[in-house]
Amino acid sequence: MRSAAAFTLVEVLISTALSAMVLAGVLSAFLFLSRSGAQASYYNDMQRDVRNALEKFTGDLRMTSAIAWNGSQSITLTVPNNYTSTSNQVTYAYDSSTSGATAGCFYYAPGNAAANGTRTVLARHVVSFAFARFDRLDAAATTNNTTKRVQVTFTLRSTRATLAGATDQTVSSSTILRNKPVN
After folding, report:
1. What is the pTM of this model?
2. Residues 150 and 61: beta-carbon distance below 8 Å
3. 18 pLDDT more than 90
4. What is the C-alpha separation between 68 and 133, in angstroms, rounded?
């Protein structure tokens, strides 16, 4: 009489253990690749925000005919194209508050710093921010009249519950105020 071919209990246990190890390896590789892709996506989003913000800001800086220094985190520019029907001024600033629609954002708003215009967010998740100004001899400018170049430095940080935070520090090139006369 012929015996039926079958696996022994030891063979089944060994194959189950090997299958579990292979499956664990595949699953951990999948999770690693998913997290890496998400992290790259967050960096890409931050870089896009930075590029768009700097493009808008430097475009207005190049055209400005006057600058009002409101502090290291806020400046008001006089630009030739109207943002509102009543003023050629636009304010670029950082909102360091922790609540509100523009909290932790680099934004611009029509009018001077005292105006209550609608804020347009240029970059979110900003954790540090500073403007720097220079005169035509590359020394730190101390007055609005002597300011000929402006530079902005800011750090963006994006955090997610399941991923390590993504951080990006940006230092813009210093932009020359081409249309602004200097004393």
Report:
1. 0.74
2. yes
3. yes
4. 11
